[in-house]
């Protein structure tokens, strides 16, 4: 019936007027419209709304129909709030079990009939793990999104079938707080939606699982196909003082990061809790790691899947590791590495409750600082020197880290992002320092003093200056709140001081003092950092070329993630020049590039400090990255490898034409890079001119000037008597 109605609607059409789905798509991006464009859209939506039937309204997803209703009345605030919620929280909302009325979690003034849950609003979600060859063990979590699963009244039924026919399967329900935390639900509690089952079959042929969920009177069915598994070697995972030791009956077992760029060179047989990353001891980064071998693997004891995930976790130093069986789209066996945040504080729903609790109990601001670098993944940039200077002046600093693989600056206290400690620290800190943005859910308090250091002089257009912005509603809203909270914005040079405020929507004071991160590149500190970094990387006196390209907005993987784009044949550069090539992927694309290594090429993407790598390099090869403005401090040779300059200019746009005054040769191929390296001397007039234009203030004493300009000069010490 639903299909027939939609066909009739398509045949009937709406004349020349846009259809409800077409207008809904435009309303989702209304946050990008100027006032005139918004008024035009309101007029179109209002005209259409008068003609649409209830059925046409209800055919739309709930957020679209509510947003269209708000747009028809010119309520832009509600439209933008719904768009932000869609991008930040996904499809999560709460559904009343009795009335099936949708609660979006935010008060909206719309007729009740618009919030009646439709069939397409009640989406079934399923996650499974599979292990064992005969019988097959299956662990799963299945629920109707928005309906909190009640194990007293709701049911899950699993049917299994192979080419030989159906197989009777018994489901055992079990509460699993970890499964709830991983459900992605912001409003509904899915602790009771977890189960396990055994299937009396082997995995020599595919097994089709049909999972039927009945929840709150709603019935949904989801299907998953478990692929056939060849004869598999059992994998043993044991906890040791060092970490997780893997053994698969003598096979060459490897651990490969799926979601994090980690380390360099061959993967280890033992996933140590502590790893040496270029001379710095750190823990494994959080993420999912595939366990692979030269033949299929299986968990040694597949019945472990009958345990809740919290009970399967191996507690190591500063992290939790959980062995996982096959799940759709992943390897047969994987290890999930998590931060040691208590399970009752994990997941969107529990984070919301924790955040509300901390905010309701907030006390006065404290004389402390919360510092964050690249969303908690970094420990340097200009935030690091500023944090060390604040500590030197007697202001304690809490340094936010996504996990304990990030080593915070000396003298600061690491605080795990999303932990209770983090929420408490941010809510009560008087001083805030960041080079990007804080999480979308933060709310700044009156009296907080926020220094935004940003993360580079821009060559490519950013923020509001991008001609065709692809920024989401969530990011756009978060950046607007950010800019409104900044007390001051830092700029490296006069060009950035003019460009950044406009692009980022900031109307406050700009501190034109240079970049604190470049203090380490100037004079004696630069030479000391150069020697220390080369030693840590195992380099001698050979010539070192650092290749550090930026990311491309339009380059995406099949999964829609940013793809790594490289235009340099690093191996050829080494072969033809004898130089060691350091390869540094941009953090936005690094997780999807895989490891790159060959003779004379060292992958340093996992190195925590780009400034240290710039200090170690004799020559920088880059493209449109802001590192060119930092490397200018050294006055060493630079080469710009830009074969896609026309496409990049059309996609993103530039603030100025580098051809007019580049820091070094502009080339389009590896062969031309090699030629440029052959002719590159120690320092050129071109390099000196570029430094004079973009780094004249980076004299090695920037950090103290920046903190003085922000908080006032430090009082002189009393003379000793």
From TrEMBL:
One of its GO terms (molecular function) is CDP-glycerol glycerophosphotransferase activity. GO terms for cellular component: plasma membrane. The keyword ATP-binding does not apply. SUPFAM superfamilies: UDP-Glycosyltransferase/glycogen phosphorylase (SSF53756). GO terms for biological process: teichoic acid biosynthetic process. It is found in: Cell membrane. It is a peripheral membrane protein. Its main location: membrane. Gene3D superfamilies: 3.40.50.11820, 3.40.50.12580. Keywords: Cell membrane, Membrane, Teichoic acid biosynthesis, Transferase. InterPro entries: Glycerophosphate_synth, TagF_C, TagF_N, Teichoic_Acid_Biosynth. Belongs to the CDP-glycerol glycerophosphotransferase family. This is CDP-glycerol glycerophosphotransferase, TagB/SpsB family. It comes from Aeromicrobium choanae.
